[in-house]
Amino acid sequence: MALPPLSSTRCLLPLSLGLFQAVLLLFFALCVTYDEHSASPTNPEDTERVAKQLHSTFPFFQDIQVMLVVGLGMLLAFLPRYGLSALTHNFLLLNVSAQWALVLQGLLHRLQHGTTLLGLRSMISAEFAAVTVLISAGAVLGRTSPCQLLAMALCEVPVYVASEWLIVTKLGVLDVGGTITIHIFACYFGLGVSKALFGNAKPTVHPKETPTPRSDLLALLGALILWVFWPSFVAVLCQPGDTQHRAILHTLLALSAGAVTTVLISILLESNGKLSAAHLQNGSLAGGVAIGVVADLHISPAAALALGSLSSLLCILGFQFLTPLLAKKLALQDHCGIHNLHGLPGVLGAVASIVAALVAPGDGSGAGGHRQAWWQAAGLAVALGGSLLTGMLVGAALRLPCLAPPPEPLCFEDALYFKLKEGVENPPMPGSSTEGAPLAMKECV
Amino acid sequence: MALPPLSSTRCLLPLSLGLFQAVLLLFFALCVTYDEHSASPTNPEDTERVAKQLHSTFPFFQDIQVMLVVGLGMLLAFLPRYGLSALTHNFLLLNVSAQWALVLQGLLHRLQHGTTLLGLRSMISAEFAAVTVLISAGAVLGRTSPCQLLAMALCEVPVYVASEWLIVTKLGVLDVGGTITIHIFACYFGLGVSKALFGNAKPTVHPKETPTPRSDLLALLGALILWVFWPSFVAVLCQPGDTQHRAILHTLLALSAGAVTTVLISILLESNGKLSAAHLQNGSLAGGVAIGVVADLHISPAAALALGSLSSLLCILGFQFLTPLLAKKLALQDHCGIHNLHGLPGVLGAVASIVAALVAPGDGSGAGGHRQAWWQAAGLAVALGGSLLTGMLVGAALRLPCLAPPPEPLCFEDALYFKLKEGVENPPMPGSSTEGAPLAMKECV
Amino acid sequence: MALPPLSSTRCLLPLSLGLFQAVLLLFFALCVTYDEHSASPTNPEDTERVAKQLHSTFPFFQDIQVMLVVGLGMLLAFLPRYGLSALTHNFLLLNVSAQWALVLQGLLHRLQHGTTLLGLRSMISAEFAAVTVLISAGAVLGRTSPCQLLAMALCEVPVYVASEWLIVTKLGVLDVGGTITIHIFACYFGLGVSKALFGNAKPTVHPKETPTPRSDLLALLGALILWVFWPSFVAVLCQPGDTQHRAILHTLLALSAGAVTTVLISILLESNGKLSAAHLQNGSLAGGVAIGVVADLHISPAAALALGSLSSLLCILGFQFLTPLLAKKLALQDHCGIHNLHGLPGVLGAVASIVAALVAPGDGSGAGGHRQAWWQAAGLAVALGGSLLTGMLVGAALRLPCLAPPPEPLCFEDALYFKLKEGVENPPMPGSSTEGAPLAMKECV
């Protein structure tokens, strides 16, 4: 079967990438200067201070880069014939979104303070904005073209910047690990996009959508990389000292309890007492999602353990029962199960932060605690509602034919986007399972 | 062939995991408070001090997490059809053992000082306890069920805590990198378990026990990850300053000399001048095992190089000659060759520490040096003898049928523990080599 | 087909490795002492200073180790049947070259200052010397024996040490990220070796030289690991403080712009609007090569973005047009395309550093800037000319038959150097494509 003409991709994708990079270059040339830490300070004490801040932040930053580029990339490569595309789309989206967020957050700073400064801190904020795009993309992975994903990124980043500004700066929501601002926002934005993009077509299982043991192994390695570096993600923007120490400890405990609970629940739910690789890949990370919003508070180690266990339980129950239900009732497609990994544990974490605000004595009980609890609830509502709404608008826009959605038989197929060696390029007939494909095909992943 | 009923796994494993997590939660809720670094300090100087200590320890901690979760996991995935299980069992054992060690070490601290404190330092000590379980499991990898491994972990951790307390606190043995307390202890514990568990049945090579080039590549990558981060493991608990610097340098030199020697010896020993992947995966790490016990002493760079070379030599000779001999004479099964990687180089390192105590002028020659040499020898004897004995007791207990040992034809087989896609689930007939298996089977890793 | 007798490898390689390790041991025993940071300081302030320097350098050092051992190793494993060899040769070369550089740089220091000191800084310098060998080896990967590669390493390291001393110490060239001293030097040395070694034989595409989607995925992961840690490589030797901060920011911007440009250009150039995995693996790193020489200067963020984009453009154009041209006109073999990744972006970076010296007001315009521009140009000329010349001499020496060059049909074949399981050992007939090979062969990677 011949591949369809990809003229629109061939023109539109390079054109928009080129235009994007050119506009960005112009913006940087006109508006961006170094921040105080990268401009030359005039005295040794300043140099010392800058060096100290750099050395205390840079290792965290590198950990986060490994998570996003390597860990998440490998996790997304769980589809046996879509590894190269998943890794590449993730990498491209990260770069475009982070640069785009640098511009927008720079402009916001310019509006407020008169200049756009550049430093490692602004890089981290921009990475965080990019994370939302990477998470949302998980809902539509494999059934969307790079053009569609890029269009989504260009729309989602400004919404995130506005939402984060509203939630954190205006409402004063406490959310050091981005549970509300990043995970919940990104999840419901992605689900909104998926719903509006795919409409009411009942989701079917594509023959190429099933992982093999080999692709599952790679994805599990990716999940473990994310698991290892998760504390850096939660704690990078914490106040150095005891606050940051507490955030790291709570995240470690939540992740560890989540890992044990995941194995426990997966064996209980699966027939014959076997584990599911998908449960492991997601459930072991759920604790990290939930703990983010309370990690730096005095919630006690036991609470961190309990929250981690509960999140993993919720995540796996979501995979087992909620995802099929949503697919059946709402025709909702969620290819990587982002609702189970980011949505449910995120909401659980947000609820925990409300409870923590109400009961924690040290964090201002009485009037202060009650007020903070209201703000946390308001933040949850804004993130959830706003993202779902804007996500559906963006999803409707992604139906434009010029964005070159992949034809159904070529979904989840590297050959559509990559020049592969001969004998591998032509995918099997649509609908045929990989079992019946010629040998050369099977070898391709 | 139908899989055997796994009712005992289905009931026992989740039950024990659930019970374990519940007891642990209770303990944390009742007994654990933050340590001085995670509780809120009252003045800026304290905050500064806490921040400094955190930033100087956390990167080391993350390196060790990468080693244990990603590096060791990949190294253990050298069996082509057992990658998912090896990675998952390693991950589960790490989490259960570390939490269990947190409790036990917390109780020990409570006995001595009245409170159980929690901080990054206690996390590192708990990780070290967990390492012993991961090493010991290497002796019985593939022929044990998760229930058996969990039971082993629950028994091994208290023995380790007691042994480490006796060797380091009571005997005053110097062992910054855990050569005696971790590597030797874990190795002989694992061998004891293996001997008592498998009895006098002559070890046979299982048809699924042979690595493929692809699984060897993954395992080699895992070994290289361990190689890269090994200096962090050795130096994390060193006194900051020159001592830590020296420990890092010595470890780097020993590992580098070991890598060169490994290639040299492997080519000399193998027929036709070819390398063995197993030699590379283990020999290049042996230097790191041996150097741990003397890394922070003034042993001179040349001694570090020599120790690294000797360890790798010993390790490869062990693989080539000792392992077959032990299998033949003692019917001893050691699936990952932990005796060659942890036992022999560990003993070599311990001997080196005795020599170093005798000859080093700066570390107290004369009476002091002689006394320390005796303590080092006593530590070696305690670690070796105690672990072998308790390991055999634990191994005998693991023969309980309710722990669901895998039936011989399903050893080294992911399909026993993982829900795999159709056509892959059913393993080939027992005894048949993978060469004759249907195509779908071969593809599964 | 029987493998050829490898007697020379069997004798020569272990012999030379053993001799090398023995000589090195002797040198260390006689000449090397700790540097000021690893010898015992006498007062707490010194300890504090040493600890601070160690904690600010060690995370960078570990990042670089991951790049060289894991990232580069995986990138070189893009050939489906040569993964184990590529990874192992890279690892062996790194260790031999770094030890050899420690000796030579130690002797140079001894000549100038009377002693040979050892510390983390000297380890980093030695690693940098080893990087040149790893890059140069990319030009002849798969068609050279370990003996030949070792001989090359032993020759290249002294030339690098001399060249680096001349360029940086004598000419005062500014090159914080090693663009001129490492990348340009290594590239043209490797091309010189390749030209002299393979002579005027027209390069043909070997049937085993084509990557599969699976090996491409592994190589892409390796490239992404390099991409993530590249800022550490560029900034490790920077002055702590604002200079280092700037170097990190510029490298991040250049790499990010390069990633976007790579996708853009690859889609434009490839037929049907598809991506090439080779373009991605190399183009996304080109920005890091070019930025090294100007990363710590006040070049402005926009210039970093522009330089990153331009480098990637140049790199991909090189793959598409220059490599075939050089192969046709000069019969030049460059198996990994090091000229496109290291040569072209390196020269671009060097030119940028000349321009920066001419125009940058803060870095001494007028007479000072002009003079520095001349030095940068002189450095470029020395690195390029010197490496090409010495590389050709070394390449001619590598034609010695005793260095056991692999026979053409066994090039790019792990079975030549590794003991593989039965049924995999015998490679297919020369010239036959892998498509026609028996099943067991195909499975081997």
Automatic annotation (TrEMBL), chains A, B, C:
Main location: membrane
Domain Ammonium transporter AmtB-like positions: 51-399
Pfam family, one: Ammonium_transp
GO MF entry, a single one: ammonium channel activity
GO terms (BP aspect): ammonium homeostasis
Record field: transmembrane: 60-79, 91-108, 120-142, 149-168, 180-198, 218-236, 248-268, 280-299, 305-327, 339-361, 373-398
Keyword Cell inner membrane: no
Topology relative to the membrane: Multi-pass membrane protein
SUPFAM superfamilies (alphabetical): Ammonium transporter
GO cellular component: plasma membrane
Keywords, ordered alphabetically: Membrane, Transmembrane, Transmembrane helix
Family of this protein: Belongs to the ammonium transporter (TC 2.A.49) family. Rh subfamily.
Protein name: Ammonium transporter AmtB-like domain-containing protein
Source organism of the structure: Callipepla squamata (Scaled quail)
